Amino acid sequence: MGEVYYDFVVIGGGSAGYAAARTFHDDGFKVAVVDGGKELSGLCILQGCMPSKTLIYSAEVFHLARQGSIFGFKNFDPKADMVGMQKRKKEIIAEFANYRKGQLEDGRFSLFRSKAKFFDKNTIKLDDGSTLKADKILISTGSKISMPPVPGLNRVSLKTSDDVLDLSEVPEEVIVLGGGIVACELAQFLSRVGARVTILQRSDHILKEFPQVASTCIHEKFTEEGITVKTGVSIENLDQVDEETIRVDYLHDGEKNSQKTKFLFHALGRSPAVDNLNLEGIGVELAKSGHIETNPFQQTSLPHIYAAGDCAGPHEIVHVAIRQGETAAMHALGQKPEPLCYDHLLGVVFTDPQVATVGLLPEELDIRGIEYLSADYPFDDHGKSILMEAKHGYVAVHADKTTGVVLGAECVGKDAGELIHTLSIAVSLKATVHQLAKADWYHPTLSEIWTYPIEDLAELISSTA
Questions:
Q1: CA distance 311 to 124
Q2: Residue 58: per-residue pLDDT
């Protein structure tokens, strides 16, 4: 045991932590990474983006295969093979996990496989009692399953997204608590592989952080696929009836309801993993949400200590975490990175249809008092989506009323997560609808649906400019 000095210490080796460590090391400095997780690689690779999207895509292909009669197939009735899906998922995830593990262990950084906490403002204490001192420190400890104050939640044998992503058998029925991104993505996955699914959501619509019209599209599609969606629900109590069964008592539409389930999927969100770091002891301030307070350069209330990724928020998305980590490292190096701004934020929900947004949407534009015009177009009147039987959803574009600069866009539909990137580039480069209208859009493609709202706006704005 002893004390070792580093120029930069990173606590947590996920996407944000690795990005920061790599950036700082590339300038020739001495960097340590401390990670006490069971496995290296971070949430996205091990328990988040990659495993969930692998299984969701398998379920989408399976769902399409079962629609064979629509596309002209006869006597085709495939069965879900969860063991096969899990095998493929594990093989894919292993490649990504091993690659990240190799990056962390390739000798560029001193890697400590240990839990850590702050001893003082410049000193990190490890599990074995040894200490690391550093001029600059980054906290990137990620997030954990939250336990909100739902009566009985901590007394029942609930399931989490980790359990859903490791299923080897399809449960007969599932009750999902929550209607956010993870809840909706995995509820549809479970339904498509054969479970009978009920979603209980406290808010008056699922995907409450997205536009109401987007929520309605997903709600309708879920209902069409046989998923029961109940919104405006108040959970009164959860009770473990026997070893396998949980009773869920709740209010819905003013009436008391009670349902029993052997698979209660807790999808009520995640919270920052900042416990046991002694942040309060050294004076690092937390927001009301529990996230670590940071400025646009990811500095905490102690300027030499930075935070990035899920533990910092405000958006728990991998590409945001990477940018935060890189920004923190560059600032710690004395460089002058662009301060982080989320006006161009890109978000995707991997339901089917997918939901994707970029930039500023009407609710935020109204709050800021920005004058804008909007135009939209439905997928059920679009050639390529009709022939693909992908008629649920719409696209919408929001542009500055005077200049035509694209401020934001929405897409709910087949492969919306791919289609939104066209408008992401437009938002980031401050392109106008007039410029986009001059681009070539191939027919028949899904992407050409953007031409309808773009051309409508170009005509409106040119006539009022």
A1: 18
A2: 94
Taking the C-alpha atoms of residue 54 and residue 349, their distance in angstroms, rounded to an integer, is 14
* pLDDT tens digits for range 433-448: 999 999 999 999 999 9
Rg for the chain, CA atoms, rounded:
24
243 class by beta-carbon count within 10 Å (0-12 exposed, 13-18 middle, 19+ buried):
exposed
Closest by CA to 279, choosing from 295, 297, 291, is 291
Domain that holds residue 159: 155-268
Give dist(CA 465, CA 463) in Å, integer.
6
Total structural domains in the chain? 3
Last residue of a domain, one of 268, 302, 321: 268
Q: Is 63 exposed, middle or buried (0-12, 13-18, 19+ CB in 10 A)?
A: middle
- How far apart, in whole angstroms, are the C-alpha atoms of residue 45 and residue 23? 20
Judge if 178 and 70 occupy the same domain: no
d(CA 309, CA 321): 4
Q: Look at residue 323 and tell me if it is in a domain.
A: yes
- Asked whether the beta carbons of 239 and 249 are under 8 A apart, the reply is yes
Same domain, 32 and 140: yes
Residue 302 pLDDT grade (very low, low, confident, very high; cuts 50, 70, 90): very high
Final residue before a domain boundary, out of 233, 252, 268: 268
Q: Does 465 score more than 50 pLDDT? A: no
**CATH code (residue 237):** 3.50.50.60
Structural domain includes residue 64: yes
In the chain, what is the greatest distance between 2 CA atoms, to the nearest angstrom?
A: 74
Using the predicted structure, report yes or no on whether residue 328 has a pLDDT greater than 90. Answer: yes
Q: Do 21 and 139 fall within a single domain?
A: yes
334's CB contacts (< 8 A; 6+ apart) are none
Rounded Cα–Cα distance for residues 211 and 205 (Å):
10
Give counts: helices (H), strands (E), the chain: 15, 21
Tokens of 166: 């490791």
Query: Is the predicted pLDDT of residue 348 greater than 70, yes or no?
Result: yes
Report the C-alpha dihedral over residues 83, 178, 44, 214, rounded to 10 degrees.
100
Res 18: pLDDT: 92
Q: How confident is the model at residue 128 (pLDDT cuts 50, 70, 90)?
A: confident
CA 44 – CA 319 distance, rounded (Å): 11
Q: Which two tokens stand for residue 93?
A: 């995830």
Among 2-6, 123-127, 334-338, which stretch is predicted with the lowest mean pLDDT? 2-6
